[in-house]
Write a structure and sequence with these properties.
With 86 residues, the chain is an alpha+beta fold. It is built from three helices and four strands; from the N terminus they run βββαααβ. Strands 3-2-1-4 form a four-stranded antiparallel sheet, with helices on one face.
Length: 86
């Protein structure tokens, strides 16, 4: 079964909608500022981005009930749904 998946604009913010429910996920501005202060080089910034990606995918997977990859997310954004792997 395919699960509807899209990004919509709400109150000047892009939000992910999965199966007609808003995926309530994000990073607060303080965390982003803190990370930027400690990212003194490209390697550190890449590690921070990797951690954010991992946290995002884990959170999305928890909501969906199965593990997802960035490839799954990118494909879902392209076609409008994510394959249900349950």
């Amino acid at each position: 079964m395919d699960i509807p998946f899209k990004i919509v604009r709400v109150d000047d913010q892009d939000v992910i909608v999965v199966d007609d429910e808003v995926f309530d996920w994000g990073l607060d501005d303080g965390s982003i500022s803190h990370a930027n202060r400690f990212s003194s080089n490209k390697e550190t910034m890449r590690a921070i981005h990797d951690d954010i990606r991992k946290y995002f995918l884990e959170s999305l997977g928890e909501q969906l009930g199965f593990e997802v990859s960035m490839r799954d997310v990118n494909e879902a954004l392209r076609v409008g749904y994510i394959d249900d792997k349950r």
